[in-house]
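Hi D.,

Good news: the full-assembly prediction came through. Inputs first.
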Amino acid sequence: MNTKEILNSIFEELEIESVKELDLETVYKDLDEWDSMSVIILIGFFEENFSTTVSGETLNELTTFGDLFLKLKIDDN
Amino acid sequence: MIHSEIKHIDYVLPSVMIDNSDFKVNHPDYNFSKFEKNVGIKSRYICADNESTLTLAIKAVNKLINKNNIIKKDIDFLILCTQSPEYMLPTTSCIIQEICGLPNSIGALDINLGCSGYTYALSMAKAMIGSGQAKNVLLVTSETYSKYINKKDLINSLLFGDAATATLISKSEYNGIENFIFGTDGSGYDKLIVKNNFFNKATIAPEKTYSNFNVYTDNNLYMDGPEVFNFTLDKIPTLVEEIYKKNKTNNEAISKYIFHQANMMLLEFVIRKAKIDKSKMFYSLSNTGNTVSNTIPIALKEYSKIRGNDNEKIVLAGFGVGLSWCGGIINLRTKI
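Then the structure:
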């Protein structure tokens, strides 16, 4: 999956309605749908697809999906 | 070796049923269908003002005794698992003994554990029977977390429900309770906590929020959902492997997995990580929510209603506040 496909998958998993699409600059914490359930869904998404454990603390510290992908070393290469 | 088995289970729910749609009035923007789809909870029951851990526990004990014609004088030990005791002191189990008319000769104690409490207490009951100290242990779980949850805390209000259960564990020639594994990680004590108690409870504590829809004060229940989720995914698949090993069995011999009913999404992740056959996982949280130490006995009772009378090997696993976990194997040969 490239970053665009990952963002599209996250968009669907989180059932985002407040914005039309997600990009690397999207501040996930500003999304209307962002709640503890969304955090868990996102953690589950990375665990399932990348076998990577993301802590709630990491999600709290970071801001954008770009930051998160950088931290998880996810890029288009 | 002296064996023990679960003879009967019954449970009661408090009087106030709250449907997800009841929350819509105050939270019109929240996506309840997404919650239902992921978490699997549609409704839960919480206590009315005149209901409590004690009143629920008494109802559960009386229901168990009356439905199954249990002779009270045959019960020789009472264990109550609760984190919402009636009083700071005395022990709530002592009051249950008196009100339910149980003999003065019984031992009675409370254990303060949450979602791992039923499996811990089941193992304690087995040990008491196995050591010849008791023949019939009455294990009660009763929780009223709703009293800890801030009225503005939507997520925890949606997740948790109140309930009480009663289980009779008896000496038996049948090996109904096998070996259990325990675990504790107190470094996560603050991930699920009611910080203030009788000694430091503030009349007015400052309100805090975390993410959208979670509001609490230090007088309320706080749950770091993501960290509890990660803890579960880290510990429980390993626990399942350890349970197989300790009991010299494997997944093929297991007919059902009945785990703490925290939420459906979490259980599905555990299934995948522990390589459990999905059809063997039993779910029972849609109408009652996460009732803490009650979820496993409620699920066991619900499963018993639909199962036949074949011998079945079932894996139980409880996990949560503490952080604490415990799991093992039970064998059923009848309806309970």
